Amino acid sequence: MGMPQLVVPAVLVEGRRKSEVARDYGVSRRWVITLVQRFLAEGDTGLQPRSRRPSRSPTRTADELEDEIVAIRKDLDRQGHEAGAATIAAHLTRRHGTSPAVSTIWRILTARGFVTPQPHKRPKSSYVRFAAEQPNERWQADITHWPLAEGVDAEILNWLDDHSRLCLTSTAAMVFTAPAVDAVYRAAADRHGDPAGVLTDNGAVFTGRYRGHGRVAPEVTLHARGVIFSHSRPYHPQTCGKVERFHQTQKKWLATQPRAATLDQLQAQLDAFRGYYSTVRPHRALNRHTPAEAYAARPKASASGIPLIDGHFRVRHDKIDTNGKLTLRHNSRLHHIGIGRRHAGTPVLVLAHDLHIRVLSTSGQLLRDLTLDPNLDYRPQALT
After folding, report:
1. Domain layout of the chain by residue ranges
2. What is the CATH number of domain 139-297?
3. DSSP secondary structure code for residue 47 in this structure
4. Angstrom distance (rounded) from CA 267 to CA 155
5. Are 89 and 99 a contacting pair, CB within 8 Å?
């Protein structure tokens, strides 16, 4: 038995005054009046505890807005885009100038069955992020693969600004060579300016440092423009993590599109995704700004424009071929150097300092001293 069951009989059965009953039981006179009125109107049911929930909640999200949140979520999922609560909030802000809190959107998505809690996952806020302080302070580049409609594998070269995550260029080709990579870089630099530095992995199209072929085309261009060229450690792709993560996001979107039959069709898809990624999709690490907004928000770094002066030195042991020639690769181009048929089969030591080449026999005899012309594939034997 509760207090109401004591108060009402005291008034109606004993005939006591309401103020007296209220004083004896330590409650307000208004509450006693309310209980008596409820009992007279509803009987014992009127004495049961009532819900304290307000008849209306001014902070409750309207059903129409909840439906719009769900519709945006479904639309982003269908298109293969990131569809988290923060992204939905950005889309709502663009439409209406305001949005519910990200936590509110997350609760709505959870209640509607779009979120599966994963408490075992490490929270993104716990990661330590390394990013360039300025746009163009460092670019990242990498190549990934994507199949065309007939199952033929194509390659995609992506260049990303490390500070803003802006996709500077996304280019499709059947196979990329070092000169092709260099051409894509030059086109991007014409639009955005040379960066202070570039970071890639150790792929053969980016560097010849582990292959004894001298500098490849991108290395020569970056060296000449004063751009610092860095490479990730072998088997350590996390160093280029931003462009690697971009590959995943790009492929998720491509998987929702009709499979391209030609390179031109694939390129059109890459252009469409690049536009959305750079100018529409807000980025968590950029305080929910788009990459294009972040790229434009700060002054840009730039290359020195002064060729790096360390020079490029190579020492190579080789053997003169049966035609009396040596081959040497420079800037991804193979050059043939005439030594003389009488030296065919002779083991030699090749000393290269940029374009200056010296060829010595193992006994120390100088067989050829020349400055390589990058435009000539063959340098015949010097006349004696």
Report:
1. 3-47, 63-118, 139-297, 313-379
2. 3.30.420.10
3. G
4. 11
5. yes
276: closest CA among 70, 81, 4? 81
The Cα–Cα gap between 44 and 40 comes to 9
119 burial (CB, 10 Å; 0-12 / 13-18 / 19+) is exposed
Distance of CA 28 to the CA centre of its chain: 64
- Cβ atoms of residues 205 and 219 within 8 Å: no
Size of the chain, expressed as the number of residues it contains: 384
In the sheet that 333-338 helps form, which strands lie side by side, from edge to edge? 325-330, 333-338, 378-379
DSSP 8-state symbol, 172: E
CA distance 378 to 143: 32
Q: What pLDDT is stored for residue 52 in this prediction?
A: 66
Instruction: Name the range with the highest mean pLDDT among 21-30, 93-102, 143-152, 322-331.
Output: 143-152
More confident residue, 115 or 17: 17
What mean pLDDT do residues 221-244 have?
Answer: 76
| Helix H or strand E encompassing 197 | strand 197-200
Confidence of residue 126 (pLDDT cuts 50, 70, 90): very low
- 0.70 exceeded by pTM: no
Give per-residue pLDDT as tens, 134-173. Answer: 999 999 999 999 999 988 999 999 999 999 999 999 999 9
Across-strand partners of 146? Answer: 154
**Tokens at 377, concatenated:** 């594939």
The neighbour count for residue 383, using CB atoms within 10 Å, is: 4
Rounded to a whole number of angstroms, the distance between the first and last alpha carbons of the chain is: 123
Strands 313-319 and 325-330 come out as: unpaired
